[in-house]
Amino acid sequence: MPSTSALPDTGKEAAHVPQYLALRDRIAEGIESGKLAPGGRLPSERQLQLDSGAARGTIREALFQLEAEGLIYRRDRSGWYVSPPPVTYDPTRWAGFMTYVTEQGRTPSTETLSTEEVPAAPAVADIFRVAPGSRLYVVTRRRLIDGRAVLVERITVDPKLAPGLCEHSLNGSLTQILSSHYGLAVVRNRMDMRPCALVKDVADGLGVKAGTPGLLVVRTSLDKQGRVVEYDQEYWRHDSIRVHVDLTVKD
Amino acid sequence: MPSTSALPDTGKEAAHVPQYLALRDRIAEGIESGKLAPGGRLPSERQLQLDSGAARGTIREALFQLEAEGLIYRRDRSGWYVSPPPVTYDPTRWAGFMTYVTEQGRTPSTETLSTEEVPAAPAVADIFRVAPGSRLYVVTRRRLIDGRAVLVERITVDPKLAPGLCEHSLNGSLTQILSSHYGLAVVRNRMDMRPCALVKDVADGLGVKAGTPGLLVVRTSLDKQGRVVEYDQEYWRHDSIRVHVDLTVKD
DNA sequence: TAGTCATTCTGGACTATACCAAAACCCGAA
DNA sequence: TTCGGGTTTTGGTATAGTCCAGAATGACTA
């Protein structure tokens, strides 16, 4: 049985390709051919303008496209750079960030941006099964790969389960600390993932423009008694993560 | 322990908010307050221009922002509309698209765009463990929720395992057909997910502009003998999917 | 009633500017 | 060598147009 139809049911054969997509292709080719190495810098927008003859708005359109595809990224008022390859995240493995980044031959690091004790909002109070307004620890961290920020996370922990948590250095594995110092063992993990746009605060932390696409990963870790040990909201740069799940049917 | 620092280490207090973000907020408020119902249409760009006094480029910037956040979507040359809520996809459950969409009170449908028999590219041949160039079935489908296209998928199946597959109606569950007609039972599922930009072909199928952010979900289904029963590349609209995973530590 | 066609409206693409703030750079002083 | 400070470069934001092709609409026709 040969082909019965083309993909889109539009009758167009050689559809008109807008200029900005053609430009995108030219730059993409330069990247894929290796002429531009990962981490390397692209010519400035105004230079590309001179090279191609297109208006700056059109040039930017092409760059935004490449950014959305994860091929390039920008540093504010510095320039456009070729993206390094993403790391693979396997939520079914319990290895933490530091571990799996290292395993993939990259260098991880963590910065604690803030540790606070805040009253629980109704939605969060519900998750922790505490009264709204109860005090909860909120730790904000930034994690980097090879020196480039890839995610900002906001971790919420109940002080009743881990009193004095903030006294520890939180630049390593938090799960590790909860386990070794407080005897909190995670036996269950709920995750929600969805594409999102990075809002102002997070975008600033990642050094990207507000509205850049990202991936929100919400993890809820539970112990044997079903208590919420850790509630973690991770905002990832979209070009830095790939999620892998391997499932076997249980008999 | 009270707050030790603010989120970003930028010293700015009340940072300057660009006009397009202010405009975004105004529209977002209209949506969240319910003044604009899901599926409802926004005023045209030119109308918003008259209302706000901003240039059309600025208006569009605000609309793109809302689109990236999943609040609105566009229909080419028709207008901007308020996005319906996303469906939740749980890859650990075996329920197919039709099932879980229905369970969430929405109406699913499927269209087969094409069925082809194509020579295997090296990468695909490797997955199926066949010689490069071997013929494989490739089915392209589009799936809709409440009449709106949410994903385009490209399914590859080995004809040796399912001869004459394309004779069947493929607008329902393909896994179902493979199981009942060919005795192929899936016992293992590998999934890869990553944010991506939707390329021309797929974007056309979904009725969106090329480069719109999306989520690529690649599923590889294996049977007891480890044979690849189904290789499925799903391109989702980013505002239509939410992935949920619930994991328990096995003892 | 059902189909056809011309008109209007809408978003898509593009040009050409302008000004700003932050980053990067360079040069001179300590 | 290192530290400051001014200059240049870069991306970020915004304006004001233009032209185009497809979607929607409504009036007219068979």
Automatic annotation (TrEMBL), chains A, B:
The keyword Magnesium does not apply. CDD domains: WHTH_GntR. Residues 17-85 form the HTH gntR-type domain. Signal peptide: none annotated. SUPFAM superfamilies: Chorismate lyase-like, Winged helix' DNA-binding domain. Keywords: DNA-binding, Transcription, Transcription regulation. InterPro entries: Bact_HTH_transcr_reg, Chorismate_lyase_/UTRA_dom_sf, Tscrpt_reg_HTH_GntR, UTRA, WH-like_DNA-bd_sf, WH_DNA-bd_sf. PANTHER family: MANNOSYL-D-GLYCERATE TRANSPORT/METABOLISM SYSTEM REPRESSOR MNGR-RELATED, MANNOSYL-D-GLYCERATE TRANSPORT_METABOLISM SYSTEM REPRESSOR MNGR-RELATED. This is UTRA domain-containing protein.
